[in-house]
Structure formats: structure tokens, C-alpha cells
Amino acid sequence: MTAVPAARMRPLRVLLHVFLALVALGWLLPLALAVYASLRPYDETARLGYFSLPEELTLGYYGEAWSQAELPRYYLNTLIIVIPALVVTLLMASFTAFAIARLRIPGRRTLLIVFTAGNLLPPQVLITPLYTLYTMVPLPAWLSDSQSLYDSYLGLILVHVAFQFGFCVFVMANFMRTIPEEINEAALVDGASVWKRYWRLTMPLCRPVLAALATLQFTWMYNDFLWALVLMSSGDKLPVTSALNNLRGQFFTDYNLLAAGSVLVALPTLIVFQLLHKHFVAGLTLGATKG
Amino acid sequence: MAAKTRRYSARDVTVLVAGLGVAIVVNVGLVWGPTLASVGLSATDWNGIGPIEWIGARNYEDLAGTYPPFWSAVRNNVLWLGFLGLVATPFGLFCAVLLDRRLRMSRVYQSALYMPVVLSLAVVGFIAQLVFSSDYGVLNAVSGLHVDWLGDRAVNIWVVMVAAGWRHVGYVMIIYLAGLKAVDPALKEAAAIDGANERQAFFRVVFPTLRPVNVIVLVITVIEALRAFDIVYAINKGRNGLELLSVLVTENIVGEASRIGFGSAIAVILLVISLGFIVTYLSQLFRGEEER
Description:
Chain A is an all-alpha fold.
């Protein structure tokens, strides 16, 4: 590119910007439409269609979605599921990755392959037996109203941990291999235990990758729809993404209300994405470019 | 790795066995165990309650012969894969190439493109309704058409694929952008000095170095196409033209029917297709590691 004279570059650059701006606009438009629809009363859009100038704008639907769909409770459900799942996944995966990448244990390559492949399976491949298994595993009543793993928070936490674990191990093992071996050797001379080398020496160096994975995993677990659909039955325990259905009436659905609900459901990931933008992208590409 | 190996103390061994043990138990118990069980159950007519009876390949025969949604689901999955692979992925690559030029506002364009990646597909499904619905949707309002985009079996799968592509393009774009940033700029300069124009330089010099990224994107594309579920489920529960293999599996277990054996047979077909790609991907990934 540097070889091309600036004068010839200019019209091309303009064209490039026009093209990219159009694409970007096209990409944002559907989301903007949802926000716009959520701000207008139903009878107005029923009369004029969604593609019309507003006569009246209102934030009322947000309040309605918030209370009618009982969104606060569903946000809480999501947090009850996602936070423990996230912490356990990262702890378990980091220790496994540490053992695979930094210690000479037999079969570590096989382990890494099995874990990574597990994460790539479509969930539907294992969902039928999992569903059956969940209905058969008994839990005490204080852990689950249904007295089984099925329809319990714990069940969803476990399935997220099991399914996302492979990806995290893969990414973290790749990262840990880049840590200089000398650090380990110095610790060995000092007689540091395995746990100390993992927790005190390796983990502090893994902060960037942990941040990236946490951001990415939060988005993925938050957005889950399938596991909750199949492994839960009582409406009041569902995560927030599934709660949208509560805004659908049996005979009549107010799409403006649903739009407000959708925006509210999308908001946390959009905020995380804006605030932790760098980590999010790093997470997506960490797993992808280390091939 | 250093050749120096210390003997582990008893405590070290306990920590290792406990840590790895839990990981293996969770992974086998909840991922690989159920996967294998799917294979076993697919040869039975179990309904989840009664006795399990072995019926061999009959589920597969029924699937291929007397279960109409199966072939529409296969067709839709193939279309989905074709659309993501031949339209959305190349478009993502194209955007990545354009954005790789240190443009002003590049960050803004990038953010816009991958904003949909963070959205739940359930939300994407709903937004698709706002745009494509027949009576109040924006598309009909703007174009003056009266097409039932989501209800008409002939068109709805295309519309949904566009919605899925909306998300896929951004995902592919980020991965390629990262790959492109890692390409040695000296390569491009050398190509330019040799008189290659930009297109030649890209296809002959840059693109071949992206091979590992290409493999990853291929796998992501295939896996996404096989996993596709949420978006059609959010629109019409994957019926009336939007059948997908993943939806059929779910239908057969959570519906009233509870045909566990039959649903498993569909899952096994998904498994066989995905394993083909997973094995290719992993062997590519771990090939260079023999010597480590």
C-alpha cells in the first residue's frame, strides 16, 4: 500500500469509506430498529407501521417489560447460573491447562485433544442422554425443588462448566506454553509444590488471558438458550434470555413491548462488550489464531 | 520443556489427581459419556420411561423413509452451511481485508460489524421478526411488497440465514483481522516491489499464509451451521419450513412424544458429520506439536 502514490489513493479511499460506512450502517440498522420500536406505542405502529415517523415517544414499555416479564428475577437467575459457572470453569480449566502445559504428566496430549474436541460437539449430540441423566440424578430438596438435577440451577451450572471447559483449557494451555520455563525452574529449585507453582507462579501471569476468557464466556453463558430450554421446566428459574417468551401473549403479542424486552435482555452483553471491548476481541481471537 | 523432572511429593500427586480427576469426571460424565450414550440409544425405541428395547437400525430407516421433516432439515442444514460458507464467510474476509488498511474510523466500523456477535440469538430471532414480518415488518413497508417472509416455506429459510449471516460475518471478520495483523508486512512489500497488484498480492502471498486461520474459520462455519438452533426456535420453533436437525433432536425429547431413541438417531447423524470436521481440525492443530 505504501508503494501507491497518495494522489491515486484518494478516490479509492473515499469509496472504501463509503462502502464500509454503508455496511456498518446496515449492520446497526436492525438493532436501531428494535430500539426505535420499543419507544413507540403499539397503536401508533399498528396504524402507521414500524417504518414511520413517530408521533409520540415513550419509555413506558421498558417499565412494563421490566415488571410484566419480571425481568429483575430473571437477571438474578442468570447471575445465579453464570457467575458460579464462570468461576468454576476458569479454575478447573486453568489447573488442567497448567498440568497439561507445564508438567510432564502421561497422556497430556490425548487429554488436550479430548477436551478440545468435546467443546466442538454440537450440544444436541449429547442432549438426549443428558436430559435423561438429569432426571435420574437425585438432589436434596434444599438444592433443587424437583429433587433432581433436572430443573435446577446446579444442573445448568454443571452443563456450562462441562461444555465450556474444553475451550478454556485449549486457550489457556496455549497461553501457558508461552511463559518462559525459567520461572518454573527457579521455583523447582526452591522446592515449590505443584499447587504453589500453579496458584502463585502461573496464575498471576495469566491475568490477560483470564480476563479475555471471562469476558467471552460471560457472553456465551449469558446468551445460552438451548440448555435452559431443555434442562429446565419451571418458568421462574429460567435465565433472562428465555424469559422473553413471557412477553408473548397467547393470542396477541405486543411487539413494541417485546422490543423493549429484547433491548433490556441484550443490554448487559452490549455493556460488557463496550467496556471490555479489548478483552472480548482478545478472547475471540486467542482461541483462533494460535493454530 | 526442560528435561529436568522432579519427583512429585505425595501432596503434589494428590493435588494433581484430584484436580485432573474432577475435570475428567465432569467432562466424561457430562459431555463424552452422553455422546456415547446417544449412539447406544439410537439403536433402541426407548421412550424415556418403559423398558429399553433394541431395534437395530430401524430408527435410521424410519428417519430416511417415513419422517418427512428429516429431509427438509437435512436440506436446510446444507443450505445453511452453504450460505455461511460461500456468502457470509467470504464477506467477512472481504471486510477484514478492507479494515486491515489502518483507515480512520476503523474501530467504529469494526464495532458495528461485530456488535451482533454479542447478542443472544433469541434476540436476533426477534429482531428478524421486526424486519421481516409480513404485515408490520419494515422490509415490506419499505419495498411495497407483500411477501410473508417468515411464514412462506419457500422463502423463510433464506431470510433466517440472512439473519444468521448478520452475526456470522462479524465473527469471521474479527478472526481474519487478527490473522491479517499477524502477517509480516515485509511479505506484502516484497510482492508490491515484484510488481504484483493488490489482488495478486493478496491471493498469492497473503492468503496462503492465512492457512491456519482458514482452517479455524472453516471449522467455526461448519460447527455454527450444525449448531444452528436458537434463531429458528425463536421465530417459529423450527417448524413450517425452518426445520433443522438440531430442532428435530430437541422436538423428539422435550415434546410430548419423548422419543428418546429416535431423537438420538438424529443426534448421531449430527455427531458423525461434526466429528469428520473436528478430527480434520484437530489433526491440523496438533500436527506441529509432535516434537514438543
